[in-house]
Design brief:
It is a single chain. By secondary structure, this protein is of the alpha/beta class. The protein folds into 3 domains: 39 residues, no CATH class; 146 residues, 3 Solenoid (UDP N-Acetylglucosamine Acyltransferase, domain 1); 58 residues, no CATH class. It contains 3 helices and 23 strands. The longest helix has 28 residues.
């Protein structure tokens, strides 16, 4: 540890001690009992009873989401904000390219694991308890999938539905209601849209992963650079080149002036001039 690091650490410890003493003095003056407060770190991946979550490095797990216990999350899957995956009694498996969106609760029960396949879209506010969800399935917002239920591939559960215990939703059907019942078969276009929805979710998850895993100082630097670029573009005056040629846009957006009398594109290929 360098001298500057040691000095900074010493100053920090002194400041914390002074603050603690000031808090104790304030409590005595007010006649209130002192509180021994502890700062608890938020853990996105939380071991439980010796079981550790197994989350692929390509996954997005939101900063305020929790994956707890015996849970396995496949590649490029997104666990969005305030979602809880709680594998404390049995196991939970989630396949690749699946999105579990905001404020969802996925848990196992004492009798059933929870299995969620690949290319599944689970909208916000869904609760899944000890159920099995196959590949290419869409679960609408606010739905409840109860213990022992099974949703087979290429099917849809409409928003706000409740799939009761041990219900089986066959492949290629849309179910809705409370309790959920079959509405109709899906047409070919709707079946194709299930995979498209999953692909869209994968792209969105990747964007959130990039945004949330940047160091704070990097975010500030990028914001400053973008702000400066916007100011420059707002005050930018188009350039008239010789022989009536115009600079049609900012650098990087197409053609720009390279040397007097010549107009070149981004690959430095001459496209006009003398």
């Amino acid at each position: 540890m360098s001298f500057s690091e040691s000095f900074s650490r010493a100053i920090g410890l002194v400041a914390r001690d002074l603050a603690k003493r000031a808090d104790a003095l304030g409590c005595r003056i007010l006649g209130t009992p002192e509180q021994d407060q502890k700062v608890l770190a938020w853990r996105r991946l939380q071991p439980f009873n010796g079981s550790h979550p197994d989350v692929d490095a390509t996954c997005f797990v939101a900063p305020n989401a929790n994956v707890i216990g015996n849970a396995s999350i496949g590649p490029k899957t997104g666990i969005f904000y305030q979602t809880i995956i709680r594998a404390d009694q049995r196991g939970i498996q989630v396949g690749q390219n699946t999105t579990i969106q905001d404020r969802c609760v996925v848990r196992c029960t004492s009798n059933y694991d929870t299995n969620i396949g690949a290319h599944v879209t689970i909208e916000p506010g869904v609760v899944i308890s000890g159920a099995s969800i196959a590949d290419d399935v869409f679960i609408g917002a606010g739905s409840v999938i109860m213990e022992g239920a099974r949703v087979e591939s290429q099917s849809v559960v409409a928003p706000g539905s409740t799939v009761q215990k041990y219900t089986v939703i066959p492949s290629g059907e849309i179910w809705a209601g409370c309790p959920a019942e079959k509405v109709r078969d899906l047409n070919d276009e709707e079946v194709e849209s299930l995979r498209a929805s999953a692909i869209h979710g994968v792209g969105l998850s990747g964007g959130h992963k990039d945004a949330t895993e940047k160091p704070f100082n990097q975010v500030e630097e990028e914001t400053e650079v973008l702000d400066q670029w916007e100011i420059l573009e707002a005050n930018r005056v188009p350039i008239r080149a010789p022989y009536g040629q115009y600079d049609p846009g900012p650098i990087g957006s197409g053609f720009h002036l390279h040397v007097p009398g010549q107009l070149r594109n981004a690959s430095n290929t001459r496209v006009g001039g003398v």
